[in-house]
Amino acid sequence: MWNYNYYVYILTNRDKSVLYVGVTNDLDSRLQQHRENASKSNSFTGKYHCYYLIHYEHFTHIDHAIEREKEIKKWRREKKISLINSNNPNWKFLNKDLSNYKNHLSFRNERGEEKSCYSVSL
Predict the structure, then answer these.
(1) Mean pLDDT lowest for which of 74-78, 88-92, 111-115?
(2) Which residues of 65-104 are buried (b: 16+ CB within 10 A; e: fewer)?
(3) What whole-number distance in Å separates Cα of residue 16 and Cα of residue 52?
(4) CA-CA distance, 55 to 102, in Å (whole number)?
(5) Tens digits of per-residue pLDDT, 7-29?
(6) By C-alpha distance, which of 52, 67, 54 is closest to 117?
(7) Cα distances (angstroms) measured from residue 72 to each of 45, 65, 106
(8) What is the mean pLDDT of the chain?
Protein backbone atom coordinates (compact mmCIF):
# COMPACT_ATOMS: atom_id res chain seq x y z
CA MET A 1 0.00 0.00 0.00
CA TRP A 2 1.19 3.49 -0.83
CA ASN A 3 1.91 6.06 1.82
CA TYR A 4 0.26 9.40 1.22
CA ASN A 5 0.34 12.68 3.08
CA TYR A 6 -2.80 14.33 4.36
CA TYR A 7 -3.03 17.12 6.89
CA VAL A 8 -5.67 18.50 9.20
CA TYR A 9 -4.75 22.05 10.07
CA ILE A 10 -5.93 25.04 12.06
CA LEU A 11 -5.41 28.60 10.89
CA THR A 12 -6.02 31.88 12.66
CA ASN A 13 -5.87 35.58 11.86
CA ARG A 14 -3.20 38.04 13.03
CA ASP A 15 -5.19 38.85 16.20
CA LYS A 16 -5.74 35.14 16.91
CA SER A 17 -9.47 35.76 17.27
CA VAL A 18 -10.78 33.46 14.50
CA LEU A 19 -10.13 29.73 13.96
CA TYR A 20 -10.41 27.80 10.70
CA VAL A 21 -10.10 24.00 10.44
CA GLY A 22 -9.26 22.36 7.11
CA VAL A 23 -7.86 19.24 5.47
CA THR A 24 -5.45 18.96 2.53
CA ASN A 25 -2.97 16.66 0.85
CA ASP A 26 -0.41 19.46 0.31
CA LEU A 27 -0.12 21.78 3.28
CA ASP A 28 2.38 24.21 1.74
CA SER A 29 0.27 24.71 -1.38
CA ARG A 30 -2.95 25.00 0.58
CA LEU A 31 -1.47 27.70 2.83
CA GLN A 32 -0.43 29.60 -0.30
CA GLN A 33 -3.98 29.29 -1.68
CA HIS A 34 -5.38 30.73 1.54
CA ARG A 35 -2.93 33.63 1.19
CA GLU A 36 -4.02 34.22 -2.41
CA ASN A 37 -7.65 34.50 -1.24
CA ALA A 38 -6.68 37.39 1.06
CA SER A 39 -8.86 39.95 -0.67
CA LYS A 40 -11.73 37.63 -1.57
CA SER A 41 -14.63 38.08 0.80
CA ASN A 42 -16.43 35.02 -0.62
CA SER A 43 -13.99 32.67 1.15
CA PHE A 44 -13.97 32.29 4.93
CA THR A 45 -10.20 32.60 5.22
CA GLY A 46 -10.18 35.63 2.91
CA LYS A 47 -13.01 37.37 4.73
CA TYR A 48 -11.48 36.82 8.19
CA HIS A 49 -7.80 36.95 7.12
CA CYS A 50 -6.99 33.45 8.40
CA TYR A 51 -3.61 32.61 6.91
CA TYR A 52 -1.54 31.78 9.98
CA LEU A 53 -0.92 28.12 10.73
CA ILE A 54 -1.04 27.33 14.45
CA HIS A 55 -1.67 23.57 14.47
CA TYR A 56 -1.49 20.64 12.08
CA GLU A 57 -1.64 16.85 12.17
CA HIS A 58 -0.27 14.46 9.56
CA PHE A 59 -2.11 11.34 8.34
CA THR A 60 -1.31 8.71 5.73
CA HIS A 61 -4.95 7.83 5.00
CA ILE A 62 -7.46 10.39 3.74
CA ASP A 63 -10.32 8.73 5.63
CA HIS A 64 -8.53 9.29 8.94
CA ALA A 65 -7.75 12.90 8.06
CA ILE A 66 -11.35 13.67 7.08
CA GLU A 67 -12.63 11.94 10.21
CA ARG A 68 -10.30 14.02 12.39
CA GLU A 69 -11.24 17.26 10.59
CA LYS A 70 -14.94 16.57 11.16
CA GLU A 71 -14.25 15.72 14.80
CA ILE A 72 -12.37 18.96 15.45
CA LYS A 73 -14.93 21.06 13.55
CA LYS A 74 -17.65 19.79 15.91
CA TRP A 75 -15.72 20.94 18.97
CA ARG A 76 -16.49 24.11 20.84
CA ARG A 77 -13.89 26.86 20.56
CA GLU A 78 -12.57 26.11 24.06
CA LYS A 79 -11.67 22.54 23.13
CA LYS A 80 -9.94 23.68 19.92
CA ILE A 81 -7.94 26.19 21.97
CA SER A 82 -6.95 23.42 24.37
CA LEU A 83 -5.71 21.30 21.45
CA ILE A 84 -3.66 24.20 20.09
CA ASN A 85 -2.27 25.05 23.53
CA SER A 86 -1.19 21.44 24.12
CA ASN A 87 1.30 21.65 21.25
CA ASN A 88 1.76 25.35 20.57
CA PRO A 89 1.06 27.25 23.83
CA ASN A 90 2.33 30.58 22.47
CA TRP A 91 0.31 30.22 19.26
CA LYS A 92 3.45 30.75 17.21
CA PHE A 93 2.69 31.09 13.50
CA LEU A 94 4.14 27.92 11.98
CA ASN A 95 3.91 28.69 8.27
CA LYS A 96 7.68 28.97 7.82
CA ASP A 97 8.55 26.15 10.23
CA LEU A 98 6.49 23.26 8.86
CA SER A 99 9.24 20.66 8.64
CA ASN A 100 10.96 21.55 11.92
CA TYR A 101 8.36 20.63 14.53
CA LYS A 102 6.80 17.25 13.78
CA ASN A 103 6.24 14.85 16.67
CA HIS A 104 4.12 11.73 16.95
CA LEU A 105 0.72 12.14 18.60
CA SER A 106 -1.83 9.51 19.57
CA PHE A 107 -5.43 10.30 20.43
CA ARG A 108 -8.81 8.62 20.71
CA ASN A 109 -11.62 9.67 18.41
CA GLU A 110 -15.24 10.07 19.50
CA ARG A 111 -15.81 6.29 19.13
CA GLY A 112 -12.88 5.56 21.43
CA GLU A 113 -10.63 4.27 18.64
CA GLU A 114 -6.95 5.07 19.00
CA LYS A 115 -5.50 7.09 16.11
CA SER A 116 -1.98 8.22 15.36
CA CYS A 117 -0.75 11.29 13.55
CA TYR A 118 1.98 13.87 13.68
CA SER A 119 1.51 17.18 15.37
CA VAL A 120 3.39 20.37 16.04
CA SER A 121 5.42 20.60 19.20
CA LEU A 122 7.44 23.64 20.17
Answers:
(1) 111-115
(2) bebbbebbeeeeeeebeebbeebbeeeebbbeebeebeee
(3) 9
(4) 11
(5) 999 999 999 999 999 999 999 99
(6) 67
(7) 17, 11, 15
(8) 83
- The pTM of the full predicted model, rounded to 2 decimals, is 0.79
- Domains of the chain (ranges, CATH numbers): 6-120 (3.40.1440.10)
CA–CA distance, 39 with 99 (Å, rounded to integer): 28
Q: For the residues 51-62, what does the mean pLDDT come to? A: 94
Mean pLDDT to the nearest integer, 86-95: 94
- What lies within 8 Å, CB to CB, of 34 at 6+ separation is 11, 45, 46, 50, 51
**Residues paired with 118 in a beta bridge:** 58, 104
**Single-letter residue type at 14:** R
Number of helices (H) and strands (E), helices first, in the chain?
4, 5
Long-range contacts of 67-70 (CB under 8 A, 24+ apart): 67/109, 67/115, 68/8, 68/23, 68/109, 68/115, 68/117, 69/8, 69/21, 69/22, 69/23
